[in-house]
Amino acid sequence: MRDRIYERLGIKAIDIYGTSELSGPLWCECSEQNGIHVWADMTLIEVLDPATGEPVANGEKGELVVTMLQKEALPIVRYRTGDITTMHEDVCPCGRTHPRIGRIQGRVDDMIIVRGINVFPSQVEHSLMTNPEVGNEFQIVVDRKGALDTMLVRVELRPEAFGDRLFELDAIKDRITHKLRGSLNVGVNVEIVEPGSLPRFEGKAKRVVDKRSL
Predict the structure, then answer these.
(1) What strands, in cross-sheet order, belong to the sheet with 43-48?
(2) What is the pLDDT along the chain (214 residues), one digit of tens a residue?
(3) 50, 82, 104 — which closes off a domain?
(4) Residues 90 and 149 in one domain
(5) Could you tell me the pTM of the whole model?
(6) What values do phi and psi take at 80, rounded to 5?
Protein backbone atom coordinates (compact mmCIF):
# COMPACT_ATOMS: atom_id res chain seq x y z
CA MET A 1 0.00 0.00 0.00
CA ARG A 2 2.74 2.47 0.84
CA ASP A 3 4.37 1.78 -2.54
CA ARG A 4 1.13 2.95 -4.12
CA ILE A 5 1.13 6.08 -1.94
CA TYR A 6 4.63 6.88 -3.17
CA GLU A 7 3.72 6.04 -6.76
CA ARG A 8 0.64 8.26 -6.81
CA LEU A 9 1.60 11.10 -4.45
CA GLY A 10 5.39 11.04 -4.34
CA ILE A 11 5.26 10.81 -0.53
CA LYS A 12 7.45 8.34 1.37
CA ALA A 13 5.30 6.63 4.01
CA ILE A 14 7.10 5.70 7.25
CA ASP A 15 5.97 2.86 9.51
CA ILE A 16 5.28 3.88 13.13
CA TYR A 17 4.58 1.25 15.78
CA GLY A 18 2.57 1.75 18.93
CA THR A 19 -0.27 0.43 21.05
CA SER A 20 -2.67 2.32 23.30
CA GLU A 21 -1.88 -0.08 26.16
CA LEU A 22 1.82 0.81 26.12
CA SER A 23 1.66 4.58 25.48
CA GLY A 24 0.55 5.19 21.91
CA PRO A 25 3.20 5.68 19.19
CA LEU A 26 6.49 4.17 20.33
CA TRP A 27 9.00 3.62 17.53
CA CYS A 28 9.39 4.39 13.83
CA GLU A 29 11.48 3.65 10.77
CA CYS A 30 14.37 5.80 9.64
CA SER A 31 14.77 7.02 6.06
CA GLU A 32 16.47 3.72 5.14
CA GLN A 33 13.18 1.87 5.82
CA ASN A 34 15.17 -1.13 7.00
CA GLY A 35 13.00 -1.94 10.01
CA ILE A 36 11.44 -0.04 12.91
CA HIS A 37 14.01 1.30 15.39
CA VAL A 38 13.30 0.40 19.02
CA TRP A 39 14.41 2.94 21.64
CA ALA A 40 16.30 0.48 23.84
CA ASP A 41 16.73 2.96 26.71
CA MET A 42 12.94 3.09 27.12
CA THR A 43 11.76 -0.38 26.16
CA LEU A 44 13.00 -3.96 26.34
CA ILE A 45 11.66 -6.17 23.57
CA GLU A 46 11.52 -9.91 23.01
CA VAL A 47 10.23 -11.89 20.05
CA LEU A 48 8.86 -15.21 21.27
CA ASP A 49 7.26 -18.31 19.85
CA PRO A 50 3.57 -17.64 20.66
CA ALA A 51 2.93 -21.32 21.38
CA THR A 52 5.90 -22.08 23.66
CA GLY A 53 6.93 -18.65 24.95
CA GLU A 54 10.54 -19.38 23.99
CA PRO A 55 12.70 -16.80 22.16
CA VAL A 56 13.08 -17.20 18.41
CA ALA A 57 16.29 -16.54 16.49
CA ASN A 58 17.03 -13.16 14.92
CA GLY A 59 15.04 -12.78 11.73
CA GLU A 60 12.50 -15.47 12.64
CA LYS A 61 8.83 -14.64 13.09
CA GLY A 62 7.32 -14.56 16.56
CA GLU A 63 5.13 -12.55 18.91
CA LEU A 64 6.40 -9.16 20.05
CA VAL A 65 6.64 -8.89 23.86
CA VAL A 66 7.44 -5.49 25.41
CA THR A 67 8.62 -4.33 28.83
CA MET A 68 8.41 -0.58 29.49
CA LEU A 69 11.49 0.59 31.41
CA GLN A 70 10.35 4.10 32.35
CA LYS A 71 6.73 3.64 33.40
CA GLU A 72 6.35 4.14 37.16
CA ALA A 73 2.65 4.68 37.89
CA LEU A 74 1.63 1.64 35.84
CA PRO A 75 4.52 -0.79 35.32
CA ILE A 76 4.21 -2.95 32.21
CA VAL A 77 6.34 -6.09 32.23
CA ARG A 78 6.50 -8.58 29.35
CA TYR A 79 3.31 -7.35 27.71
CA ARG A 80 2.21 -9.71 24.93
CA THR A 81 1.18 -7.46 22.07
CA GLY A 82 -0.24 -10.23 19.87
CA ASP A 83 1.69 -8.76 16.91
CA ILE A 84 3.82 -11.02 14.72
CA THR A 85 7.19 -9.60 13.69
CA THR A 86 10.92 -10.31 13.51
CA MET A 87 13.83 -8.84 15.50
CA HIS A 88 17.10 -7.62 13.99
CA GLU A 89 20.14 -6.62 16.05
CA ASP A 90 22.63 -5.80 13.30
CA VAL A 91 23.60 -2.18 12.64
CA CYS A 92 21.16 -0.32 10.40
CA PRO A 93 22.59 1.32 7.24
CA CYS A 94 21.68 4.66 8.86
CA GLY A 95 24.31 3.95 11.54
CA ARG A 96 21.98 3.48 14.51
CA THR A 97 22.66 0.47 16.71
CA HIS A 98 19.25 0.12 18.35
CA PRO A 99 17.52 -3.23 17.84
CA ARG A 100 14.89 -3.15 15.11
CA ILE A 101 11.69 -5.01 14.41
CA GLY A 102 10.43 -5.88 10.96
CA ARG A 103 7.09 -4.76 9.61
CA ILE A 104 4.16 -6.26 11.48
CA GLN A 105 3.15 -9.39 9.57
CA GLY A 106 -0.11 -10.12 11.32
CA ARG A 107 -1.74 -10.91 14.62
CA VAL A 108 -1.44 -14.12 16.58
CA ASP A 109 -5.24 -14.39 16.54
CA ASP A 110 -5.39 -13.64 12.76
CA MET A 111 -3.16 -16.56 11.83
CA ILE A 112 -4.73 -19.44 9.94
CA ILE A 113 -3.11 -22.83 9.42
CA VAL A 114 -3.51 -24.36 5.96
CA ARG A 115 -2.02 -27.81 5.45
CA GLY A 116 0.38 -27.23 8.32
CA ILE A 117 1.56 -23.83 7.03
CA ASN A 118 1.00 -20.63 9.04
CA VAL A 119 -0.66 -18.00 6.84
CA PHE A 120 -1.33 -14.37 7.76
CA PRO A 121 -3.72 -12.11 5.83
CA SER A 122 -0.98 -9.48 5.72
CA GLN A 123 1.22 -11.88 3.71
CA VAL A 124 -1.58 -12.30 1.18
CA GLU A 125 -2.12 -8.55 1.01
CA HIS A 126 1.58 -7.85 0.50
CA SER A 127 1.74 -10.29 -2.41
CA LEU A 128 -1.46 -8.98 -3.99
CA MET A 129 -0.36 -5.36 -3.83
CA THR A 130 2.64 -6.12 -6.06
CA ASN A 131 0.16 -6.55 -8.93
CA PRO A 132 -0.81 -3.18 -10.43
CA GLU A 133 -4.22 -4.46 -11.57
CA VAL A 134 -5.35 -5.43 -8.05
CA GLY A 135 -7.67 -3.16 -6.07
CA ASN A 136 -7.74 -2.71 -2.30
CA GLU A 137 -10.19 -5.48 -1.39
CA PHE A 138 -9.69 -9.23 -1.11
CA GLN A 139 -11.12 -12.15 0.81
CA ILE A 140 -9.56 -15.44 1.95
CA VAL A 141 -11.87 -18.46 2.03
CA VAL A 142 -10.53 -21.57 3.78
CA ASP A 143 -12.43 -24.85 3.50
CA ARG A 144 -11.80 -28.56 3.77
CA LYS A 145 -12.42 -31.19 1.11
CA GLY A 146 -12.04 -34.65 2.53
CA ALA A 147 -8.89 -34.61 4.65
CA LEU A 148 -7.26 -31.66 2.86
CA ASP A 149 -7.55 -27.93 3.52
CA THR A 150 -8.26 -25.66 0.57
CA MET A 151 -7.58 -21.95 0.27
CA LEU A 152 -9.27 -19.58 -2.16
CA VAL A 153 -8.35 -15.90 -2.49
CA ARG A 154 -11.08 -13.75 -4.02
CA VAL A 155 -9.57 -10.60 -5.50
CA GLU A 156 -11.14 -7.37 -6.71
CA LEU A 157 -9.40 -5.69 -9.61
CA ARG A 158 -9.23 -1.98 -10.24
CA PRO A 159 -12.16 -0.84 -12.41
CA GLU A 160 -9.86 0.03 -15.31
CA ALA A 161 -8.32 -3.47 -15.20
CA PHE A 162 -11.61 -5.39 -15.12
CA GLY A 163 -12.65 -5.86 -18.72
CA ASP A 164 -14.57 -8.36 -20.82
CA ARG A 165 -11.54 -9.96 -22.44
CA LEU A 166 -11.35 -13.33 -20.73
CA PHE A 167 -7.82 -14.09 -21.88
CA GLU A 168 -6.57 -10.91 -20.19
CA LEU A 169 -8.35 -11.78 -16.93
CA ASP A 170 -6.96 -15.31 -17.09
CA ALA A 171 -3.44 -13.94 -17.52
CA ILE A 172 -3.87 -11.67 -14.49
CA LYS A 173 -5.28 -14.55 -12.46
CA ASP A 174 -2.37 -16.83 -13.38
CA ARG A 175 0.16 -14.16 -12.43
CA ILE A 176 -1.50 -13.51 -9.05
CA THR A 177 -1.73 -17.25 -8.34
CA HIS A 178 1.94 -17.79 -9.14
CA LYS A 179 3.04 -14.99 -6.81
CA LEU A 180 0.80 -16.14 -3.95
CA ARG A 181 1.98 -19.74 -4.14
CA GLY A 182 5.59 -18.58 -4.17
CA SER A 183 5.23 -16.28 -1.16
CA LEU A 184 2.97 -18.49 0.99
CA ASN A 185 4.47 -21.91 0.15
CA VAL A 186 0.99 -23.39 0.14
CA GLY A 187 -1.45 -24.36 -2.59
CA VAL A 188 -3.89 -21.53 -3.26
CA ASN A 189 -6.53 -20.83 -5.89
CA VAL A 190 -7.56 -17.36 -7.06
CA GLU A 191 -10.93 -16.02 -8.14
CA ILE A 192 -11.14 -12.65 -9.90
CA VAL A 193 -14.29 -10.76 -8.90
CA GLU A 194 -15.94 -7.58 -10.10
CA PRO A 195 -14.91 -4.28 -8.44
CA GLY A 196 -17.22 -3.44 -5.53
CA SER A 197 -18.54 -6.99 -5.11
CA LEU A 198 -16.72 -8.01 -1.91
CA PRO A 199 -18.15 -7.07 1.52
CA ARG A 200 -17.09 -3.76 3.08
CA PHE A 201 -16.65 -3.28 6.81
CA GLU A 202 -16.44 -0.32 9.14
CA GLY A 203 -13.16 -0.38 11.04
CA LYS A 204 -10.91 -3.40 10.60
CA ALA A 205 -11.66 -5.44 7.50
CA LYS A 206 -12.63 -9.09 8.01
CA ARG A 207 -10.48 -10.80 5.43
CA VAL A 208 -10.88 -14.47 6.37
CA VAL A 209 -13.87 -16.79 6.02
CA ASP A 210 -12.94 -20.11 7.61
CA LYS A 211 -15.61 -22.62 6.64
CA ARG A 212 -13.81 -25.40 8.50
CA SER A 213 -15.21 -24.03 11.75
CA LEU A 214 -18.78 -23.54 10.51
Answers:
(1) 43-48, 62-68, 79-85, 106-107
(2) 677 787 888 888 899 999 888 878 899 999 999 999 999 999 999 999 988 899 999 999 899 999 999 888 888 999 999 899 999 999 999 999 999 999 888 888 778 889 888 888 888 998 999 999 999 899 999 999 888 999 999 999 988 888 778 788 899 999 999 999 999 999 999 999 989 999 887 656 678 888 886 5
(3) 104
(4) no
(5) 0.63
(6) -85, 110
